[in-house]
């Protein structure tokens, strides 16, 4: 993988993770982050430039979907789950 292609993949990976952290629902947020990490790890050894480009295009479409879903989730927000409201232990 060329250095510029590698940088683009890493930028896309970071953008997807960053955007996924904005999901208001804990379950969606944790699933999206886990799925993004798994997908990028699964394809880390791909060497074919055509296949890399196809995967990049799919990831860009998925980033758009994540952004739209984050906005929709913010319009219809719900209460936080108990797991999200846990206080940190005092020391």
Give a description of the structure:
The chain has helices at residues 3-20, 26-42, 49-75. The chain has 91 residues and is mostly helical. The chain has one domain (6-80). Helix 1 (3-20) packs antiparallel against helix 2 and helix 1 runs parallel beside helix 3 (49-75). It is elongated and about 45 Å long. The model has no long low-confidence stretch (mean pLDDT 88).
User: pLDDT under 50 segments (min length 5)?
Assistant: none
- What is the CA-CA span between the terminal residues? 48 Å
Beta-strand fraction estimate: under 5%
Instruction: Please tell me what the overall shape is.
Output: elongated
Cα-based radius of gyration, to the nearest Å:
16 Å
Provide the helix percentage. 55-70%
Pfam families: Complex1_LYR (PF05347)
Protein name: LYR motif-containing protein 4 isoform X1
GO molecular function, one term: protein homodimerization activity
Domain Complex 1 LYR protein: 7-64
């Amino acid at each position: 993988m060329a250095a510029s292609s590698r940088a683009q993949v890493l930028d896309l990976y970071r953008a997807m993770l960053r955007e996924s952290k904005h999901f208001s629902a804990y379950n969606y947020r944790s699933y999206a982050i886990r799925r993004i990490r798994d997908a990028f790890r699964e394809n880390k050894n791909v060497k074919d430039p055509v296949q890399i480009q196809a995967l990049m295009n799919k990831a860009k479409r998925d980033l758009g979907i994540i952004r739209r879903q984050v906005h929709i989730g913010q319009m219809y927000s719900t209460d936080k789950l108990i797991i999200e409201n846990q206080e940190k232990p005092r020391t």
